[in-house]
Write a structure and sequence with these properties.
This protein is an all-beta fold and 122 residues long. The protein contains no helices and 11 strands. A hairpin with a 2-residue loop joins strand 7 and strand 8.
């Protein structure tokens, strides 16, 4: 049976952002977040950090990807620390303790992956 590009929620649509660069800016002495996309498969949130700002150790109820768009971040996950620069990507499975520290003014993209309903309980 062929799909008619629909699901229970209606037509399937393309999610598109032309340029993430102008959607958030670094603010002095602050960490700022902005959700830029929410879809059934996950959410994308931009974070900006001034030098020395951080997200202290926490866990997430879903898998997440962290990508540095500008600057330099120190990323710690489950006891391992790496430096994440533009072009770098880190992955945290569900409930792995992790933290982010800005070595300089930085912008980060966080992608939260919503587990498929078919896999829940497997």
């Amino acid at each position: 049976m062929m799909s008619d590009e629909r699901n229970e929620a209606g037509p399937i649509e393309l999610g598109y952002i032309e340029d993430l660069g102008d959607m958030i800016s670094v603010q002095e002495g602050s960490t700022v977040s902005r959700t830029v996309m929410q879809k059934a498969g996950g959410n994308v949130v931009l974070f900006s950090f001034d030098t020395g700002e951080e997200l202290s150790e926490h866990t997430a109820a879903m898998p997440v990807f962290v990508q540095t768009l500008k600057g330099r971040l120190k990323v710690t996950g489950n006891g391992r620390t790496v430096e994440l620069v533009p072009g770098g990507l880190a992955y945290f499975p569900t409930r792995i303790p992790h933290a982010i520290y800005a070595e300089e003014p930085s912008v980060m993209m966080l992608t939260m992956v919503t587990p498929a309903r078919d896999n829940i309980g497997d």
